[in-house]
Amino acid sequence: RNDAVVISGRKLARQIRQEARHEVEQWVAAGNKRPHLSVVLVGENPASHSYVLNKTKAAADVGISSETILRPASITEEELLDLISKLNNDTNVDGLLVQLPLPEHIDERKICNAVTPDKDVDGFHVINVGRMCLDQYSMLPATPWGVWEIIKRTGIPTLGKNVVVAGRSKNVGMPIAMLLHTDGRHERPGGDATVTISHRYTPKEQLKQHTIRADIVVAAAGIPNLITADMIKEGAAVIDVGITRVQDPVTAKSRLVGDVDFEGVKKKASYITPVPGGVGPMTVAMLMKNTIIAAKKLLKPKELEALTA
Fold first, then answer.
1. pLDDT tens digits for 80-92?
2. CATH code, 41
């Protein structure tokens, strides 16, 4: 049999960014203000700086204006809340995101909930999380939405299929499971799949019993080589959301690896996403879509205002 089709997240993301670019051009041509994204970046985490650069580059590419607001790791929670409040009230700012992780002395949940829900392009505000869990329109978190788009645009069926999501983080694993198992007829359509969520307390042997029956495996645990060929059903689709920096034993250079043993699994799967070049670019592309949604105020802000009043 042939190896799996390697799904190029870069190619798909390019397509989505092109759609976004077209949408921005039409919006601006109709006499509206160009969408604007503000990114708050706290501290010196090199990975965070690299991600934010990817986001602002993509924004420029689709015609969204953006700014990165840098603050030292020593910033107090109160100062950060003040900054967010200022950006919430700035009518030029359509989308607002605070890059995670934040320094330990700052409560991430408190910060996520400080961002106005209709500017919350990360989809991390408790109202957006709640609406997502109720299958209502909401700002969807970019990585889970990116995974959804990979599956849908590749034509991988989900209805009635078995899915395993390895990882239960509130920003990635949980929302992916939520999108995939929910009702396709609801306001925000879901995938109608049968979803199993595994996590750090799932014994490896048990995980295998689940994955071996799965039509789709989404690996979002942040554990290199968690998913190996022996765990995968012939012809399954494997989506790798993990990113871990490892030191190459030979070259001593650091490189990115996912949660999936790519070379082994691609001999058995029907579809597989690589790391890098799989889910990562999709996350950034969906963030652009969210910024446009925020700029167009498509999420009936009246409903959200009623809840925040």
1. 999 999 999 999 9
2. 3.40.50.10860
